[in-house]
Amino acid sequence: MMKKTALAVALAAAFASAPAFAEEDLRAEMRALREEVQRLRAELDAVKAAAPAARSAQVATPIAPVPASAQTSVASTSTTPPTGATVAAAAEPVESATRLFGYGEISFSRPQDAAQAQATVGRVVLGLGHQFNERTKIVTELEVENAVVSADDQGEVAIEQAYVEHQINDGLAVKAGLYLIPLGYLNESHEPPNYFGVKRNFVETAIIPTTWREIGIGLTGNTDFGLRWDAGVTTGFDLTKWDATDAETLESPLGAVHQEGQFAKAGNLALYGALNYNGQPGLNVGGGVFIGDVAQKQPDFASSNARLTLAEAHARWTPGNWDLSALYAIGSFSNVEQFNLTQVGNPYPVPKRFDGWYAQAGYKAWSHGDYALLPFVRYEQFNTARKYDDALAQFGYAAQPTEAVVTAGASFKLHPQVVLKADYQWFRENSSRDMFNLGIGFAY
Amino acid sequence: MYDWPRPHPLAARYLLACAMCVSLLGCGGSGDSAPGPSAPGLPSETLSTVGELGRQIFLDPSLSASGKMSCATCHDPSAGHAAPGSGSGNIGTPDGGTQLDVQGFRKAPSLRYLRFAPAFNFDAEGTPNGGFMRDGRFGSLAEQASKPFFEPHEMALADSAALAAKARVAPWAAAFRAQFGESVFDDPARALDRIAYALAAYQKEDPDFARFDSKYDAFLAGKTKLSDSEMRGLALFNDPRKGNCAACHPASTPANAPGPLFTDFSYDNLGVPRNPKIRANADPNRFDLGLCGPFRADLTGRTDLCGAFKVPTLRNVALGGPYFHNGRFETLKEVLRFYVRRDTNPEEWYPRLPDGSIDKFDDLPAAWKGNVNTSEAPYNRKPGDAPALNDAEIDDLIAFLNTLNDGWQQK
Q: Cβ–Cβ of A304/B234 closer than 8 Å?
């Protein structure tokens, strides 16, 4: 298993060698810009050819949701997908105000115990957007997880997003409905070609519960110097759902109490805020915080003033062929002691703190036309129960051990939006989870 | 489906009120002292007309061959709707029959919180669940309520005609006619059906059957704290490695109830020792096998279920024993010691055979002793192992169980 020091050396070497690729990096960016101009020209020609009615519905902003880092990042790497609008423009000669987009992933995982080997259609998501005019659009996404949904199957159908967005002016937009909370990288940008690894990283699933959406209203602003800011008020988590006998609460504390827009208890609303700086080409630095009470004013709940605070900070740098990123996330439940005391003896109390971080390095080792090969390595540490209330100590509760995972593998892109993936994962605490993964992913 | 007259609700209530006035004047009031939700002569504030009729039927001893046994005799409202410490041999069921001298076979269960029980079913994993009676053989509260009238060891009426004849002259008969039709008693089967319907309505409507006002409920709501001993007991109750009680008696709130029910309505085979105080057990070949008979007849072929009985709620369990389906143990201390020492010290619970060996699980035929649950804590032990709980821990657990009694009030 790779040690942290070895990883640090690898990262240091990667950064040190970055200047050597500056010239090639510049050429790549110029190529990308040239292609983008060509696409825009084709799109403009199509708009001119369209009827006046269609012209009035011409899109000004992409219909498909766009991650924070992708919206303003000039030096978008090959792991950042084209927007839905761009893709549609390339595929359709005539612009349409209604767009279909989506993504999917199919994976195979083989742990050491062959009996646990498994293949599944992890998810297929169909998105439909409509641009009413240059300022107002809707975005909807319908997701099917694990292929089959019925009373006897484990699959799930969900509306992942359903919101209206209105562009108030060039630098300010407001959205309302069910939408993704802009914390971290994966939550807003989780299409398989956008991330390394067959499976999503642990920190942004166990600590930040990707794909995490809430019903609410939010503002997004962009400044001339490359700062994007987000703020909003939404539904939050429902701690009254916490089942201290269910191991899922240990896998993802917030995933176990999320509401996903289904009859979400809204006695308590939550606030969020996020900042992303994209002013330097190829660089994104940001962070965010989400805070809200989680008892939802439910009667007869022991911890009536329980609160969740989730915060994260992230950075991504894409010099030349490199794609380097790091993220830290920390969550905290406060005022939950009384509820936890009602659950003593059960194996999974509400943690006082849970956190994790990762550092990741990817490199475009080879490319030819649309083909590209991108090896990567990621080191992450996470603990979903870093600390419990002191009052639980007398009942034998102690913090969980911190898990560390190294994931190494590669993405092979048939096209910027179609990827084949392979990797191996090493677990420090529970080596029985070590596994080999294969995956197919696409977005359109 | 039934097609009985439906008088205007207000008219029905008025008639019922009048009928109650007459009954009180004529009889001097009910012979039972159970608390009623309504003032004399007035319709109830909390019960529907049918529910109020059910309450009166529930308390009426005239519907028995002895004239002295009502539903409340075995399901006393002042004792958690059960009958702790009752019956010859103290098996927890009052003796019935025409002379009140016929012993029962099983401990009378509490009727509380039964409104949340599902009908009997096999779940997705094929395990039995729900139903009424200890073997789940009845599908509803109404079906269950209709049976004791005719059991020889209970109310011992000959048939529904005998019941209708007694009901016809009961204090509540006029109100019953007003609700279900003047001719209701002329059709005994229909009269029985409506009596059971009213009894079920009473059990579903009267808050006393599902109070959720124990100290534990107040604790869950953040309105009080448990003592140190009660807290330790709760931890032992939940801990899968210690008491593991919550595995069958969940302490968490299910989706269909406002509070924990302390039963998952599943079935388990605990290998409870034979109770020699049950006279029928004098026959060495007689066994009460729960799901597979003798009272239940539709699962006799499922020999893998022989010996399994429904998991009861633990609310009000501390009001008094005896415990288990056959009333084998008189105190909670005995019950909990049995749970944790059954497999570590079987000699404490079972008789010895002539060859000196221990006749473990002696209330089951040899062929089905393998059905007993020996895989889950606290049973997953063998002689020589330490019991899952020591005596001090058992005392803590009992302290916790005492927090489950209805009617707790902040001091």
A: no
Q: What is the pTM of this model?
A: 0.81
Q: How confident is the model at residue B46 (pLDDT cuts 50, 70, 90)?
A: confident
- Domain identity same for B36 and B128: yes
Instruction: Say if B411 falls within a structural domain.
Output: no
- Identify whether residues B187 and B233 lie together within a single domain: no
CATH topology of domain A4-443: Porin (2.40.160)
HSE-CB at B332 with a 13 A cutoff on CA atoms is 17
Euclidean distance between CA atoms B12 and B411, whole angstroms: 42
Mutant choice from A152, A249, A341, A388 vs B, greatest count of B C-beta within 10 A: A341
Name which of A3-17, A341-355, B246-260 the model is least confident about. Answer: A3-17
Contacts of B240 in chain A (CB under 8 A): 347
Q: What is the pLDDT of residues B350-376, one digit of tens each?
A: 999 999 999 999 999 999 999 999 999
pLDDT digits (tens, 9 = 90+) for B288-323: 999 999 999 999 999 999 999 999 999 999 999 999
Same domain, B82 and B175: yes
Q: Of B162, B188, B209, which one is at a domain's C-terminal end?
A: B209
Which residue bears the tokens 């605490």?
Answer: A429
Residues B152 and B277 in one domain: no
**Residue A241 in contact with partner chain B when CB distance is under 8 A:** no
Structurally, chain B folds into a number of domains equal to 2
Same domain, B151 and B282: no
Question: Is the residue at B409 inside a domain?
Answer: no
Q: What is the DSSP letter of B354?
A: T
According to the model, what pLDDT value does residue A320 have? 96
DSSP structure string for A341-394: HHTTTSS-PPPSEEEEEEEEEEE--EEETTEEEEEEEEEEEEEEEEE--GGGGG
pLDDT bucket at B124, cuts 50 / 70 / 90: confident
Distances from the Cα of B284 to the Cα of A281, A376, B105, B272, B363, angstroms: 89, 74, 15, 16, 9
Mean pLDDT across the stretch B120-148? Answer: 95
Q: Could B221 and A395 be called an inter-chain contact, meaning their C-beta atoms sit closer than 8 Å?
A: no
- Which of the 8 DSSP states describes residue B302? -
Q: Same domain, yes or no, for B162 and B272?
A: no
Q: Which of A299, A338, A344 sits opposite B235 (nearest CB)?
A: A344
C-alpha–C-alpha distance, residues A171 and A72, integer Å: 11
| pLDDT confidence tier of residue B21, bands split at 50, 70 and 90 | very low
For residue B45, the enclosing domain spans 9-209
Q: Do B159 and B63 reside in the same domain of the chain?
A: yes
Mark whether B201 and B291 lie in a shared domain: no
